[in-house]
Amino acid sequence: MRVSDDDTPHxxxxxxxxxxxxxxxxxxxxxxxxxxxxxxxxxxxLLYDRDLVGLAERADIAEATTRVxxxxxxxxxxxxxxxVGDDGMACRxxxxxxxxxxxxxxxxxxxxCSVFPLGIRVEDGELYVDVRDAAREHCDGLGETDxxxxxxxxxxxxxxxxxxxxxxxxxEL
Length: 173
Known about the structure:
Blueprint: E1 2-3, E2 11-16, E3 19-23, E4 45-47, H1 49-56, H2 61-64, E5 65-68, E6 71-74, E7 76-78, E8 89-91, H3 101-106, H4 111-115, E9 118-123, E10 126-131, H5 133-138, H6 153-156
Parallel strand pairs: 3-10
Antiparallel strand pairs: 1-2, 2-3, 4-6, 5-6, 7-8, 9-10
């Protein structure tokens, strides 16, 4: 991964060969998921076409997804454990132990889950990446480790993002 060394507040980073983003967050910011935090799992997960294919290999699509405003999302489900949102619901794949069954059992995540806590927007054909405002407010994993986000963007931004017509993340269930 190559990071530009200019003095601008935004840094251009090559995440994968030929795939660059403009980073808008502080490069010293660190992140690591923490066991006690499942906040990101309390919201609907937007699925891109490639995610639907991946999910179909691991779950029943009809049971696992819902279509809202012309977009596919992972269904939320009522849960009888503490890892839920204010409405008593969470991602249908969130288990009582606070872990994702898709990730635990299949070592796979939908693109939007990989991207969190980052938000992506597209401007003039370029991908801009920042930490989502909601993540800054609710995510317990920010600043909890030595793992700098900017040094690990390839773990958060799958190469397939650059193949999407619109990888912007500002869509909610």
